[in-house]
Amino acid sequence: MISTLLVAHPWFSPAVLAVLVLGGPVVGRWLSWHPRTAWALFAASLLPLVLLTLVPTSREIFERCAVSWSLPTFGRVELLANVILFVPPVLLAAVASRRPVVALVGGVVGSAAIELVQALLPGLGRSCDTNDWLSNSIGALIGAALAWTAIWAARRWPRRVGSTSRR
Asked: Which candidate, 23, 37, 158, places its Cα nearest to that of 96?
């Protein structure tokens, strides 16, 4: 269903990625001063991730695991969607913890765990794919880089508590 939507509207994934790249550091800078909110948003960002990767489907699996290595491009909407899927959770976890490298590792390991579950539970109707892991890992890297930028900006331009400008 989501693949059909993405194929019908190929501009959607690049637009979402652009919004994340442009808005991520700005929102992340604000969230760096509100870690509880960042953690809550992180938890919420895991819901689509779980729904899109681990909820059983009625699809019949012909191949349990596909091993191939293709980089995501704007024309490969499913791979680009896999990139986007991991940007928000890693960005939010990195900003909340102020540890982008730890969040990056968590994203890469988490993606591998999802692919492992898909491989071990064929009843889910999902098959593991190294391309998915690679795309998810690229998304995790983007999320960590955006978080690093947000944390750097928060340190460079600290929040002014109680400052209101009156003219």
From this structure: 37
At 93, is the secondary structure helix, strand, or coil? helix
How far apart CA 27 and CA 30 sit, in angstroms, is: 5
Beta partners for 129? 66
| Cβ 14 vs Cβ 74: under 8 Å | yes
Burial code (b: 16+ CB inside 10 Å, e: under 16) for 85-118 equals bbbbbbbbbbbbbbbbeebbebbbebbeebbeeb
Distance CA 86, CA 12 (A): 16
Whole-angstrom distance, CA of residue 89 vs CA of residue 146: 12
- Its sign, for the CA torsion 58, 55, 17, 142, is negative
Show me where the domains of the chain are located.
Answer: 2-23+36-55+64-156
- Residue by residue, pLDDT tens for the chain (167 residues) are 566 676 677 788 889 999 999 999 999 999 999 999 999 999 999 999 999 898 888 777 766 788 888 888 877 888 899 999 999 999 999 999 999 999 999 999 999 999 999 999 888 888 889 999 999 999 999 999 999 999 999 999 887 766 554 44
